TrEMBL record:
This is BTB/POZ domain-containing protein. It comes from Trifolium medium. Residues 96-155 form the BTB domain. PANTHER family: BTB_POZ DOMAIN PLANT PROTEIN, OS08G0495500 PROTEIN-RELATED. The lineage of its organism: Eukaryota, Viridiplantae, Streptophyta, Embryophyta, Tracheophyta. SMART domains: BTB (SM00225). Pfam families: BTB. Pathway: Protein modification; protein ubiquitination. Its main location: membrane. It is a peripheral membrane protein. It comes from the Eukaryota. InterPro entries: AtSIBP1-like, BTB/POZ_dom, SKP1/BTB/POZ_sf. GO terms for cellular component: endomembrane system. It is found in: Endomembrane system.
């Protein structure tokens, strides 16, 4: 048996309705079918966010969360302690052996942490490059604040608000330094934040960094849900003038497909 706690959000073209948190016990496949009572006619989306997921054993033992490391609180506490130590290493520059020069300031870090997180950084410090000799690297395409967010992520100490604020610079860094996990997280975060004001920027970023899920989400938002009419004309004209030709062609292909489904 599976017990899950989830939150449901209905997203309509112009309004969002946040519903209450539900707790549900699933015993058979029939329990996965949930009827929706609504008088709304037309297309709408229901987002389901799972807040917890517990497995109940057949002998009616105590349910255990799938996100609690098999219920082993010692493992959870050990991980928290390790992350706290890593955070202190960064915040207090404990035995730091690397200087990072950003666009508007410098930071102290550790070669081992960066090398373990990125094959690009590892290559810098492994081969006889100037970064290895000087123990200094230049990341001058990032501000001090954005680079701090990047290092906070690598040290396991980034805050959610900082991640969201610096998501686009983090995406650029993830692509540049081949940090796959960060790139995936950035894509998921951007996918959740698509709106009429930023959809064209998101689409361009998706094309630039080959983020297929984000690109699909933007095109769906624009054409399947008709949000192309909410975007300002000058923004669309600017996209057509400066965007990659293949991207513009793909947009037209999607638009034609939606207009002529047969």
């Amino acid at each position: 048996m599976i017990e899950l706690i989830y939150k449901v959000e209905w997203t309509r073209p112009l309004i969002k309705i946040r519903l209450i948190v539900y707790e549900r016990l699933l015993r058979t496949q029939d329990d996965f079918v949930w009827p929706v009572d609504t008088a709304f006619m037309g297309r709408f989306i229901i987002d389901v966010e799972f807040l917890d997921l517990k497995i109940c054993h057949m002998n009616d033992g105590e349910p255990s969360s799938v996100w609690s490391y098999d219920g082993n609180s010692q493992c959870v506490e050990a991980q928290r302690s390790t992350l706290h130590c890593l955070s202190r290493m960064f915040d207090e520059a404990i035995h730091a052996d690397l200087t990072i020069i950003t666009a508007d300031g410098t930071l102290r870090a550790h070669k081992a942490i960066l090398s373990a997180s990125s094959p690009v950084f590892q290559s810098m410090f492994h081969h006889n490059l100037k970064e290895k000799e000087s123990s200094t690297i230049h990341i001058e395409d990032m501000s001090l604040e954005s680079c701090t967010a990047l290092l906070s992520y690598l040290y396991g100490a980034i805050k959610q608000e900082d991640f969201r604020k610096h998501c686009l610079p983090l995406l650029g860094a993830a692509n540049k330094y081949d940090i796959g996990s960060l790139k995936d997280l950035c894509e998921e975060n951007l996918l959740e934040d698509i709106n009429s004001d930023n959809v064209l920027e998101m689409l361009n970023e998706a094309w630039l960094y080959q983020l297929h899920k984000l690109k699909k989400g933007c095109l769906t938002f624009l054409f399947e849900f008709g949000k192309i009419y909410d975007v300002k004309d000058d923004e669309i004209n600017n996209l057509f003038q400066h965007a990659d030709r293949e991207l513009v062609m793909e947009m037209f292909q999607v638009m034609l497909t939606i207009s002529n489904p047969e």
